[in-house]
Every structure is written in structure tokens, then in C-alpha cells.
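Troubleshooting log. The previous structure file for this entry was overwritten by mistake, so regenerating from the original sequence record. Sequence copied from the archived sheet and checked twice against the printout by T.R.
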Amino acid sequence: MPDLPPADPELARRLALHLAEWIGSWPPPPGRLGVVGSRKRENPGWDGSVNPVVGVLTPDRGVLSVPPGPAADLSGVDTMSVARQMVPGALGRPGRRLFEGVFRWCHHLVDTDAPGEWVPVADPRVPEWLQPFGGEVLVAWDGEGRYAAGVGRKLHDRYGQEISVGTEREHRGRGLARRLVAQAARRIFEEGAVATYLHADSNLASAAVADASGFPDEGWRIVGLA
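Regenerated output below.
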């Protein structure tokens, strides 16, 4: 793996604040997985849905957040292999499973042009997939003023905003997604937060966008309940 540029210390500080608030505890215990109980796992998130499990793993440790009640029954869980066996049942959902994906955070801001325009989500030109994000979304238009690509933000808390990006098929391969992500990350930084970016291991196109926009893969993982 090539050497990465050093992480901006202010972005790293905001990331730690975001994870402490979003998950309920950060940093993780040395060399293992820690399970914490958080009321946030009982309350609706950015889109109104309840996520009973949220975890973030670094290459050698991590924190798994569950509701306070089940947390007491999971106090002895200190590895992901054990968590996969015990967590669904402890939550009363034995038919479900834990999943993992790639967790990235904005390591450094990338200089780029600003191909997108921030518009209210109620703008009739905004496609359906962006509407649940609410507030303002970042959209690049084609030469006819139609949607070409866009970014929505999941406002997890005051310190962390997760970026989602999508590009119409006929506009792919032109660098729109990476430029929009970099533009959105700068806006998030200006608002006092840090941008995060999640994707499936199999999504190589999404990985390439993240790599080019200041979100390197440092081996961190996101954990949820499928």
C-alpha cells in the first residue's frame, strides 16, 4: 500500500468526537472489541429508522454499540467472531446477522473545482433517491439542466456527516462523483464536522471515488445488523 499523506489533526479530532457521540464510546479498548450500551440504538437515526447495532472497527480493535439492556448480557464479548454468534440472539433477533463494510473518513481535504450546486431537497429536479436526506443536497446538472450526479448527507450528529453519492449512467467515467464528494467534504468541514464514507467491499467503483477524494481505506470497518 502506498504511503498516505498525514491525516489532518483537526479532522481526526472531529472524527473521535463523532464516534464517541454516535456509537457511545471512543476510543476502543486496547487490542480487542468493546461492547457499549447506548440509548441512540433505541432512537430513530438520520432517516427516522432505528439501528439497534452500530459498530466501528480499526484493524486491531473496535466498539460495538447496542441498546443498554442487551449490553449487560454482552459484556463478555471481546471479538467479532463471538459477537456474530451472540449479538442477534441477545437483541431478540436470532434470524438476523451482523454485516461488515468499509468505513472511511475524510483524511484530508482535496482541492478540486466545484461541479455541484447546493439546492433544497424539495427542488423538483432532485431525483427520488436524494429526497430522504432532507435539507440541502449537492447536485451537478448536465448541459440541459437535468440531474447528472448528486450527494446527500446523513446527519448523524454535530460532528459527523456521512456522504452518499450517485451518478447517472450516461455521466459516469468523467470524475463527477469524486469531485462532488470532495466538494461536499469541504462544506462539511466548514460546518464544523467530519465527512465519513461507507461502502460494500464489492463496490470497487465507490472505493475508487473515495480514494480520489481524500477518504483512504485504512482497514476500518462498519458493522450493522442485516
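DSSP finds five helices and ten strands in the chain. Archived copy saved in two places this time.
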